[in-house]
Amino acid sequence: MNKPISIAILIIGVILLVYGISAGDSIASNVKEGVTGTPTDKSLWLIIAGVLGVVVGGFGLVRGRKD
Fold first, then answer.
1. Total Cβ atoms within 10 A of residue 1
2. How many other C-beta atoms can be found within 10 angstroms of the C-beta atom of residue 29?
3. What is d(CA 8, CA 58) in angstroms, rounded to the nearest whole number?
4. Which candidate in 1, 20, 22, 31 could, as Cys together with 60 as Cys, close a disulfide (CB 3.0–4.6 Å)?
5. Residue 67 pLDDT more than 60?
6. 14, 50 in Cβ contact below 8 A?
7. How far apart are the C-alpha atoms of 4 and 11, rounded to whole Å?
8. Is 33 in contact with 39 (CB distance < 8 Å)?
């Protein structure tokens, strides 16, 4: 994977992670978490996608391209 793609995936992952964390702190998520004990599905998926993007992008940057 080349460096610009890895950087783009890393940046998108960080953005998704930030949105997921802020969605987890929303009023709707707090109400659902108070009733069911789990945060909303949207915030969970955003956090999972963000972590995955950070891991894949970071791995692409660290590993680099070996031609």
1. 14
2. 19
3. 10
4. 1
5. no
6. yes
7. 11
8. yes
- Give the three-state DSSP class for 33: helix
One-letter amino acid for residue 13 of the chain: G
**CB atoms near residue 35 (< 10 Å):** 8
Give yes or no for a contact between 24 and 54, defined as CB atoms under 8 angstroms apart: no
Q: Please name the residue that has the structure tokens 């964390």.
A: 21
Tokens of 4: 């610009």
Residue 11 pLDDT class (50, 70, 90 cuts):
very high
pLDDT tens digits, residue range 17-44? 999 888 877 777 777 777 887 777 888 8
Contact predicate 60/5, CB 8 Å: yes
